[in-house]
């Protein structure tokens, strides 16, 4: 195997298409810090690096966990993973977890060491960082991975919404007004919507593999209604924040994404065949990123 093919295999295993969504949370948190007059470039860059590594760690762990549990079969509708067709093996993927986990920890420690202002900050964020690393791995790895228990949605809401946005904001502003919780909620809900498309697409395979996602629990029809609720609540979270925080009408630029979100939501609601949702996963990730970027632009106006 040459170096180019090795790189491409590990690059695809890192799932680069998932990274912008993770980075969007840091973008929103830093944009809020800028809006509040507390923006710090180095904190933002270290937060982006740490989040990137944690997302890659989560992706590696997801592949490894599904592999050892036999969840990724030939029936899988989504893109085939490198470990499925033997390009890498379980032992290699396991070693990568240790390496990326260590890098995530070092990056997180660097972020906290630079940004903390009190012993309490140090203890709290070190603890949160360790929890984030453990959560990234145990989503599908371990005796009772929480991704197999229908807890993926709440985990994504917490880590991609509240922890990422509020944590990034706090490390720059060193306080978190209650109003900031609204965009953190919106950001988290859009991330949950991406996971929801994935779970709607894989519902039959997950059911056979014993992976009891929320969609497996509530069924496809309720899952599509749930998807609409996620989109509506996300937009409302940003909009209510704007009513209290924005001084100009053009700061509501994120509303430009609403027609696209509505079109997407209608498609998901109408289409019952899981295979039709394969291209929609990338679409939802793109819409989440677009909404967060537009919202961040509005904060700068």
UniProtKB/TrEMBL annotation:
InterPro entries xref list: MenA, UbiA_prenyltransferase, UbiA_sf, UBIAD1
GO function terms (MF aspect): 1,4-dihydroxy-2-naphthoate polyprenyltransferase activity
Pathways per UniProt: Quinol/quinone metabolism; menaquinone biosynthesis; menaquinol from 1,4-dihydroxy-2-naphthoate: step 1/2
EC id: 2.5.1.74
Pfam families referenced in this protein's UniProt entry, alphabetically: UbiA (PF01040)
Main subcellular localisation: membrane
UniProt keyword annotations, A-Z: Cell inner membrane, Cell membrane, Membrane, Menaquinone biosynthesis, Transferase, Transmembrane, Transmembrane helix
Gene Ontology BP term (one): vitamin K biosynthetic process
Entry GO terms, CC: plasma membrane
Cellular localisation: Cell membrane; Membrane
The name this protein goes by in its record: 1,4-dihydroxy-2-naphthoate octaprenyltransferase
Originating species: Bibersteinia trehalosi Y31
């Amino acid at each position: 195997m040459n170096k180019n093919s090795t790189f491409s295999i590990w690059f695809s295993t890192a799932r680069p298409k998932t990274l912008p969504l993770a980075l969007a949370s840091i973008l929103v948190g830093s944009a809020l810090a800028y809006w509040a007059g507390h923006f710090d470039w180095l904190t933002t860059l270290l937060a982006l690096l740490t989040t990137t590594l944690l997302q890659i760690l989560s992706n590696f762990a997801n592949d490894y966990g599904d592999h050892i549990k036999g969840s990724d079969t030939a029936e899988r509708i989504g893109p085939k993973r490198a470990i499925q067709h033997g390009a890498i093996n379980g032992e290699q993927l396991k070693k990568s977890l240790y390496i990326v986990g260590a890098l995530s920890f070092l990056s997180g420690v660097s972020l906290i060491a630079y940004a903390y202002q009190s012993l309490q900050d140090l203890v709290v964020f070190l603890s949160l960082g360790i929890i984030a690393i453990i959560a990234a791995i145990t989503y599908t790895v371990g005796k009772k991975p929480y991704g197999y228990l229908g807890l993926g949605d709440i985990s994504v809401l917490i880590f991609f919404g509240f922890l990422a946005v509020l944590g990034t904001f706090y490390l720059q502003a060193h306080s978190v007004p209650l109003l900031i919780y609204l965009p953190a909620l919106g950001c988290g809900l859009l991330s949950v919507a991406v996971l929801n498309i994935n779970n709607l697409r894989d519902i039959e395979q997950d059911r056979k593999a014993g992976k009891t996602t929320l969609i497996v629990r509530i069924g496809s029809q309720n899952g599509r209604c749930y998807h609409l609720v996620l989109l509506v609540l996300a937009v409302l979270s940003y909009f209510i924040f704007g009513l209290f925080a924005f001084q100009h009408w053009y700061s509501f630029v994120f509303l430009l994404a609403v027609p696209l979100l509505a079109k997407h939501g209608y498609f998901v609601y109408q289409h019952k065949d899981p295979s039709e949702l394969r291209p929609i996963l990338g679409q939802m990730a793109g819409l989440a990123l677009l909404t967060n970027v537009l919202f961040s632009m509005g904060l700068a106006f």
